[in-house]
Amino acid sequence: MYVWEWQFLWESWHREAVGLSAPIVSHQKMEDSEESSDEILARLTSAVQRELAAVIALKARKSAVERNEDNNDKHVTVTESEGVPDPQAGVMCKLQEKDDIGRIELVQKLARENCQCLQTDKKEQEKSEHQDDEVTTVQVKEQDQNVLVLKKVQSCRPAPQAGSVESDWRYVVVSGTPEKILEHLLNDLHLEEVQDKETETLLDDFLLTYTVFMTTDDLCQALLRHYSAKKFQGKENSDVPCRKRKVLHLVSQWIALYKDWLHEDEHSKMFLKTIYRNVLDDVYEYPILEKELKEFQKILGMHRRHTVDEYSPQRKNKALFHQFSLKENWLQHRGTVTETEEFFCHVYVTEHSYVSVKAKVSSTAQEILKVVAEKIQHAEEDLALVTVSFSGEKHELQPNDLDISKSLDASDRIFVYRKDLADTLNPFADNEESQQRSVRILGMNTWDLALELMNFDWSLFNSIHEQELIYFTFSRQGGGEHTMNLSFLLQRCNEVQLWVATEILLCSQLGKRVQLVKKFIKIAAHCKAQRNLNSFFAIVMGLNTASVSRLSQTWEKIPGKFKKLFSELESLTDPSLNHKAYRDAFKKMKPPKIPFMPLLLKDVTFIHEGNKTFLDNLVNFEKLHMIADTVRTLRHCRTNQFGGDMSPKEHQELKSYVNHLYVIDSQQSLFELSHRIEPRV
Prior knowledge:
The chain is an alpha+beta fold and 681 residues long. The protein folds into four domains: 3-132, no CATH class; 143-159 and 167-309, Son of sevenless (SoS) protein Chain: S domain 1 (Son of sevenless (SoS) protein, Chain S, domain 1, Up-down Bundle), CATH 1.20.870; 342-435, Phosphatidylinositol 3-kinase Catalytic Subunit, Chain A, domain 1 (Ubiquitin-like (UB roll)), CATH 3.10.20.90; 439-665, Ras guanine-nucleotide exchange factors catalytic domain (Son of Sevenless (SoS) protein, Chain S, domain 2, Orthogonal Bundle), CATH 1.10.840.10. It is built from 28 helices and 16 strands. Strands 8, 9, 10, 11, 12, 13 and 16 form a seven-stranded mixed β-sheet that branches. A five-stranded antiparallel β-sheet has the order 3-4-5-15-14. Strand 1 (75-78), helix 4 (100-112) and strand 2 form a beta-alpha-beta unit. Keywords: Guanine-nucleotide releasing factor, Nucleus. Guanine nucleotide exchange factor (GEF) for RAP1A, RAP2A and MRAS/M-Ras-GTP. Its association with MRAS inhibits Rap1 activation. It is found in: Nucleus. Pfam families: RasGEF, RasGEF_N. GO terms for molecular function: guanyl-nucleotide exchange factor activity.
């Protein structure tokens, strides 16, 4: 583990473990703290939890010895072996192997009761742990090297008798080589209509995270080998149709999960073409494959023209899949963006303020200029769009220019300039025009405005592929086109926060400013009611921005009921106990709902950085399961689709406003505005 992780986790239990005096807290608060600790521990693999438990016990033992406690204190031996207790040692307790989190909880409990944790004989302890490992784990070896590690867990399956449950044991993957994990997955698959939960989860975990440890080409080749193998589970010509059906089932789930992502990858296109032809050949020898063939054809319906009819080996397409195998560092690039795809275009009005325009890739410069002109309330014919490079070089965009987003370098900006009588371009001065803007938002219905925010955010959230969170976490390159939809939603959260501060600070009249703050508090409440937690957090954070929160004259005039409402809303953003308030509230919300994406990414990142991806050259699949389980939050949130009802006229007006927010992205400029409208006394 990393140093900061040990320090972070140790501090959570340090006060109780070493027996230091602590302030008296309520029983409920202690329960909440323990529950929060359990949630953090749930994001650590069992190996890391065992190491952490050992460290806590060792720290507690050393502290107890240093303080030289009275002999009347209870003594506890932290061990998993059956030893003969010393009559003078006090009460003896044995830690069981039921679950690793429970072991840590017990250490905490004993430390609070002022017990001493004593270390037993190291050889005996290692012997006991080795015996426990033999009982609970199975290690598959090839050439004296581990290739697969399985852990024994209890599984509950429906029994033949109605209303009864049959409990049995099964083995889940802890770590292994990519090939052996895939082999175990195929062996574990059932061809019944409904898979058992464990197998379904294993399949989903593998498909979501395989790009961490193998390339798409590797997976395709491995699946073809399994499909064409003459032996299955060591038996020649035995259950060959069963093996082929299992491979086809995995492929169908792969296609269903990745949808349009799959047919744009060169390796997967060749694979789909090859395996489809193999099934066509095999269906005559194995008629049982006819059902799978029909399902396969149905699933491949949208892809067939890409795989069978139009595929050409000479065609050089850019791949959509972005492999990031940590061993090979094999990265591919996203395919060509279609003309219907949208992007965020920031058109700067001044040096520190811009209009955020959501436009199609095929949009012309004139279409973007029309939106900006309407937003800043200037005649379109008096304005022009200009690209400004990092060195200060300017280039005026022509009305029919296309693909603006592609023509810009990373450091380039688009500005809107004014044309004077001599047709020379002049920039807007800071706050010259913005101070004169009318406060349009005061005339808008808060519920409808929140609904339009939800519509906009939902379109972004619904476009995020689960794979984007995996790539965002593991890729060392950070953002880019491969996480485009995720980046859009994160950017939107930041823009809404800046929009709230901008609207309030550009309002110079105290009375209207008070009305604006009240308006945003109501919009935040409506966002929560509509289960849009992304915009909810952004608005609350915007109201809590230092440049806004310092406006004492404004906040003094806010009615008490609005202050109380804002305090209640603010409590949901409280980060204490690992954002417990937010997590509890979000769990109770039914889908469709939009989570606060930065926190979801934080959870995935915590799992990634707190656990190694490879253990002894084996893929740490236990870690990948935890990551996949967190990523599946997106799937749960999108169980139902969102659809807001609004009259066409109101919808169009609000949509235009929400889609093109005017924001100031400089904190210094926001503070200058803040001190200008309410100078420091």
